[in-house]
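Morning!

As promised:
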Amino acid sequence: MAIGLMKLFGAVLTVLSAWYLGHLMAKPYRLRITALEQGIGILGQLRPEIGWHHRILATAFERASRPFPAWQSMAHSLAERIGEHDTDFASAFRQALQCVPGLWEQDLVVWNELGHVLGQSAAEFQLNHLQAAEMELTRLLHEARSQGLKTARLTETLVSLAGLALVIVLI
Amino acid sequence: MEPWDFLPRRWKEKVQQLGPKHLANVEEVRFRLDRPVLCYGPNWSKALGDPEHDVLRQQDLDELVSILADHSLYARVEELRHAYLTLPGGHRVGIAGRAVWRDGVLSTMTDITGLNFRRAQDVYGAAQKVLNLFDTTQPIPSLLIAAPPRCGKTTLLRDLARHLSDGGERVAVVDERSELAGFYRGHYGFWLGMHTDVLDAWPKAEGIMAAIRTLGPDWVVVDEIGGPEDLQAVARALQAGVGVLASIHAGSYQQLEAIADPDLKGIRVSALFPAVAVISRRFGPGTVEELWQGHQQVWRLAS
């Protein structure tokens, strides 16, 4: 009886561990999607902050990131670095991006390019740059959703199934 | 905070190396292309670092402007158009550079060649010397303060506004260049009294008219009037029974007499105001040289 319960407990634990492992392996894909979705949301919020309110970039980012938890620490870090009066915006922006979990290399390229042109010209040019970055990030998000999410789900399923198979073999 | 607190660390440290004696009375720090950085006090000037080697390049000036504008030049275009940037605490950085014209209008500045960090002074009681010249039993008349640059006009005007406001008068300050109130990102740099409203960044003439129409002031305070539209707005305010405290660039009362607006049928600016105080920096900024009332010199500082 006790051995049977232990086997059952072991089987459940193995299946749960396999599911959790699958979930961990799929996490980067999901994080990337969240970071891209919220990043695009920020760009949308930045437009009125820059184009209409003419707020400085640090404040604009802090206000725009309020509904987007994945980006809040980035905006805070950016404001801190700029407040030190000792760095150029592109460097401060690049370093602050490290606070955003889940961005991939190709996403960072788009964000860093944006960091190079933000703040350097009239508001209308800023808006054009924001729009261009938003379009590129939307393309990357679409790609992440169609390919990355598929991969994430497949990984989760395969690892969970592998756990189940292991249990069956062991039993 | 001092204006040089907003400089990058390497420059800030060099300013601080001036020592307490000079630091206490630095008035300006000037950054000029291909030249060393110079600090100016009341009767002295001193180069920062090694004058032979520490000369400024275009890249240094561009970097400084970007930092001063919080890397958000688009948000400071209006200030750049008027060749300055405001800093917290009411300080101001004057900018020399190349004007950029767009559709016949000066739109911004580029190729920056000089920056002048000016330390704003807030001297409580600075206006007392002027106020003492008036009969204390009578209300203060509308007053024009005439002086050349760097004689303490703005400091005097700020303290006069504070004095009136603290005396219960409703004061509207038209602060086109954010110098009087030092308004910066939601905070005032200077206390201007309990009964003071500030129209920040408003053009002087429009600001005066808006204040009269909407704020119901007893007094309007405005710095550095000069254009015909400014004089017309001042005339309208005085006609409306609102007192006006204003300043103007002029070295003497005689120079002031020459400033007239043809649209006001040749009325001289000196005739608009019941009282005119001429200021110099002979014994330090804010030295009252003369007081004129009704074209009569009623007081003069002994030479």
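The helical segments of chain A are 2-51, 57-64, 69-83, 89-96, 105-117, 123-170.

Hope this helps with the figure draft.
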